[in-house]
Design brief:
The protein contains 2 helices and 2 strands. By secondary structure, it is an alpha+beta fold. It has a two-stranded antiparallel ribbon. Strand 1 and strand 2 form a beta hairpin.
Length: 82
């Protein structure tokens, strides 16, 4: 049941971002370290959301990896003491 609520929440967030992006289609100036470029605001919004999601996913994967290592270490200590 929790997965279904998470899926519905994710779809709701995606819908809000999509509506917000479609409303904001005016060109904007994006300043880089090496120059400037004109981009539609919709691409800036979607790109920012995707980069944010990628960053959150990578941080989550790192945390899972750390927890798995800690679990294996704890299981090894339990086996060693038994």
């Amino acid at each position: 049941m929790k997965r279904q609520w998470n899926l519905l929440l994710a779809l709701f967030v995606v819908l809000i971002i999509a509506v917000f992006s479609v409303i904001n289609v005016d060109p904007v100036t994006v300043n880089y370290l090496f120059g400037k470029a004109e981009w539609p605001l919709i691409l800036v919004i979607i790109g920012s959301v995707l980069l944010g999601a990628l960053l959150v996913g990578l941080i989550g994967m790192m945390k899972i990896y750390q927890l798995q290592r800690a679990l294996k270490k704890a299981e090894g200590e339990i086996d060693h003491h038994s």
